[in-house]
Amino acid sequence: MPLKELFDLSGKIALITGGSRGLGLQIAEALGEYGATVILTARKQNELDEAKAHLADLGITAHVYTNDLSDFGSIDAAVERMVSEVGQIDILVNNAGATWGAPTAEHPLDAWLKVINVNLNGTFLITQSVLKRCMLPRGAGRIVNVASVAGLKGNDPRMTPTVAYNTSKGGLVNFTRALAAEMADKGVTVNSICPGYFPTKMTKGTIAYGEQSILENTPMHRLGGEHDLKGLALLLSSDASAFMTGQNIAVDGGVTAL
């Protein structure tokens, strides 16, 4: 098989949670460029509409659905509707996330629950639904979790404490490993991308607070760019990664190499 064909996603349907902006939209651009039809979910319809128009300008077919992963009761019905209206989901990118910055001793319980519910519980439920409806019956699928280097290491004490976020992303790292082992003989691969610091709406406050420290402690001395996740996202979503599963791969400019 020519190498280019291993990366070809023509005829595939990719569901990307939190896909209306930031890293999710960048991943949608990458998968769409290689032929996938993309389904984007997010909480805000106006942002989804803007993302759909942006992708259409790039020649990418996108379908958009409002969905809140912390509303557990809505998830299964949302997936059923997507499958009914668009088709069987071949690729699931669990990108939606939430964060909260506060010293641990002062961290509000409702903020802790918000982060854990979106980053872990909602991710589990939508993954379960897609597995049951699409991937396990057909014996094929790609699951790509967007974790974080925050799930691989502790927090720099000079930065705002984010214990709930670090905990949730650490959970997602091991969720990736455990699910990968369970799915390995069922045709479904499960891997995660662990980004370092990328400029997004969610990281805006953190970067504004500690950009100098971030750059000083990143061997490449820069933040992530708009194309830096695309190659890995495509690899993990395609047949080019057919013998890869259970891997948590950092894209961080060298931070975790220190």
TrEMBL record:
Record domain Ketoreductase: where: 12-186
- PROSITE patterns, per database record: ADH_SHORT (PS00061)
Q: Name one Pfam family in it.
A: adh_short
What InterPro entries does the record tag this protein with?
A: KR_dom, NAD(P)-bd_dom_sf, Sc_DH/Rdtase_CS, SDR_fam
Which PANTHER family is this protein grouped with?
Answer: 3-OXOACYL-[ACYL-CARRIER-PROTEIN] REDUCTASE, CHLOROPLASTIC, SHORT-CHAIN DEHYDROGENASES/REDUCTASES FAMILY MEMBER
**Which family is annotated?**
Belongs to the short-chain dehydrogenases/reductases (SDR) family.
Q: What is this protein called?
A: Gluconate 5-dehydrogenase
